[in-house]
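In the design runs reported in the main text, the only information available to the sequence generator was the tokenized backbone. The following block is the verbatim input for one such run; it is reproduced so that readers can re-run the procedure and compare outputs position by position.
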């Protein structure tokens, strides 16, 4: 299932250019088209043996980006986004996991400058032509140069530059996740009603979240842990506090990214030992690493290889010597 309100994987796709477009130009056009174009259609998301079908509507008008994602299979649920405000309508008993980073944001920060930096960590290749949802597409690949990140295969509509398929792939070429349009069209405009929920909010649980905007100036001055070392190319891009489970306390959150791949670090105080996840865990493309630092339980989770989350989780120090002395 798409994490972070499902919308992430679908809408962080990529786009394309002309017959012999430079791969860099394909990605730059993608970054703009995935945000500013109007498009709607049916999307299939696949991760391992799990397959979901979703209806997507995306629009951009007056500098405001809006989208609505409706699940067509499984439990009824709907996600509506306006810029960084996300509203989720979920079955009342369903828990919402906002911890997992996802493919959303894949190109949101891409610029000529970031592409130049990413060249040190990814090899950019052209993949040729493909036909997806009845549209001619161009493909590009971002192949990882080390064991700290996955690769991406991106297929984009030649005409509009709107992303039509994205694959998250391992270094040995296994497909970990895939998002693909099976139907798509590109309306000139979309009415406001297109972004209104179909579900009756009285029958569902509504969760509203304002997503913070990543930047290069995240303030870690009062963060209880010191990030001694990060995998090459990664840096802190966001720091915020989130409500703890069952509304008790707060969880410190730090987002760490290389511009494409992202990892979240969560630090929670006084977690009961029986609830403290320790060690390495994997679920599809998502890997997590947990351990204790004094009274803080740290979880590092991301759509990256295990080496990345383990490296980050093992290269931390407590700033408070008294905390460090606690078992």
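Verbatim output:
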């Amino acid at each position: 299932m798409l994490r972070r309100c499902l919308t992430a994987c679908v809408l962080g796709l990529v786009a394309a250019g002309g017959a012999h477009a430079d791969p860099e130009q394909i990605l730059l056009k993608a970054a703009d088209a995935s945000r500013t174009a109007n498009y709607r259609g049916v999307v299939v998301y696949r991760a391992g043996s799990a397959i979901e079908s979703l209806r997507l509507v995306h629009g951009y008008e007056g500098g405001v980006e809006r989208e609505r994602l409706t699940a067509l299979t499984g439990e009824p649920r709907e996600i509506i986004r306006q810029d960084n405000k996300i509203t989720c309508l979920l079955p009342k008993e369903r828990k919402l996991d906002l911890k997992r980073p996802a493919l959303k944001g894949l190109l949101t920060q891409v610029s000529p400058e970031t592409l130049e930096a990413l060249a040190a960590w990814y090899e950019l290749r052209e993949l040729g032509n493909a036909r997806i949802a009845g549209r001619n597409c161009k493909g590009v690949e971002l192949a990882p140069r080390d064991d700290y990140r996955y690769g991406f295969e991106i297929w984009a509509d030649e005409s509009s530059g709107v992303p039509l398929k994205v694959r998250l792939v391992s270094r040995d070429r296994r497909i970990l996740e895939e998002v693909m349009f099976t139907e798509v069209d590109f309306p000139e405009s979309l009415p406001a009603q297109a972004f209104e929920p179909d579900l009756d909010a009285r029958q569902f649980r509504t969760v509203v979240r304002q997503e913070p905007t990543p930047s290069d100036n995240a303030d870690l001055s009062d963060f209880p842990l010191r990030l001694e070392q990060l995998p090459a190319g990664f840096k802190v891009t966001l720091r915020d506090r989130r409500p703890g489970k069952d509304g008790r306390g707060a969880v410190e959150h730090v987002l760490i990214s290389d511009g494409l791949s992202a990892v979240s670090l969560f630090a929670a105080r006084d977690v009961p030992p029986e609830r403290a996840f320790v060690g390495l865990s994997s679920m599809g493309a998502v890997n997590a690493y947990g351990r204790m630092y004094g009274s803080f339980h740290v979880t590092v989770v991301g759509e990256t290889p295990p080496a990345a989350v383990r490296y980050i989780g093992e290269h931390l120090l407590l700033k408070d010597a008294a905390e460090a002395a606690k078992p």
